[in-house]
Amino acid sequence: MSDKTYEMFWDCEYCGSSKLLGVTHRHCPGCGAAQDAQKRYFPSDEEKVAVEDHEFTGADWSCTACETPNSNKAEFCTNCGCGKDGAQTVDLKNEEEPKPAHQERQPQKSGLPIIPIVVGVVAIIAALLAVFFFWTEEKGVTVDSHSWSRSIDIERYQTVKEGDWQSNVPLKAYKKSCFEKKHSTKQVPDGETCSTKKKDNGDGSFREVEECKTKYKDVPVMKMYCNYSIDKWAKYKTLTEEKNDLKPFWPTTSIKPCSLVKLGCEKEGKKSERYLLNLIDSEGGKHECAFPQKEWKGINVGTQKKMQFRVVDGGIDCGSWND
After folding, report:
1. 3-state DSSP call for residue 116?
2. What DSSP string describes 19-33?
3. Which structural domain, as residue segments, surrounds residue 299?
4. Potential cystine with 279: which of 141, 193, 292, 313 (Cβ 3.0-4.6 Å)?
């Protein structure tokens, strides 16, 4: 083997002899008891004993009769003479990960663990939200009036300044100014972190091997970013009409259509509309609820209803109108 090989230690459970050598002491030199492979352990760095000219033939096998560990080359148990057939190899030991030397043990903090506290806080917040939205009381309301609003966005074909990655710049863009800009990051190798590990050979010896893991660092991925101008339809203004009656109408746009699209041309864009019932509750409070136009128009002033109100903030539950 190319790695340096050392003796495992074991302690005799019969006479108390300790730090016996895994390869050299197959039996306890104090009382003659056979070695127990389950009692093997790694020595400290200061107590390591090298095995000279060690020939590794495989992990020991455990005798099915007396559980004595035997060399993989042996066909019969050196303790009781039982044959090797059907025997299993001994379990390998794993080195415990040492704690970093620079970390000092912190005194245990008194009080509750952090996880139950966080869970408790989340539960309290959830309970408060449930109270806010679901704790309601019933009040009578009367329809006081109707109100409505209608809006039309006016779009103008105009020059707009925008920016995007070079691969996404529209073909019709002009006055482009491009420069390198951080687009993302990627991880690249940045050396290695190496440590020496003890590996149980299973025959009373262990070897020290160096294990290295690649370190990575984030580096920016640069791409070309462009600022540019482009002629396009864009929202220019919004026209709105609103009143307290039952006769909604759309704003007058007074747009002259363009036969050819050019800078300065205008057109109608997105339309929006809202229809409200203005309500007064039994305590004199004023509220608004939105309805579809057809339903809104069919509800008369003076109509009375029982509706739900949130106890915490007094807000009306408009969905309870149809309950």
Report:
1. helix
2. SEETTT-SB-TTT-P
3. 136-149+274-322
4. 141
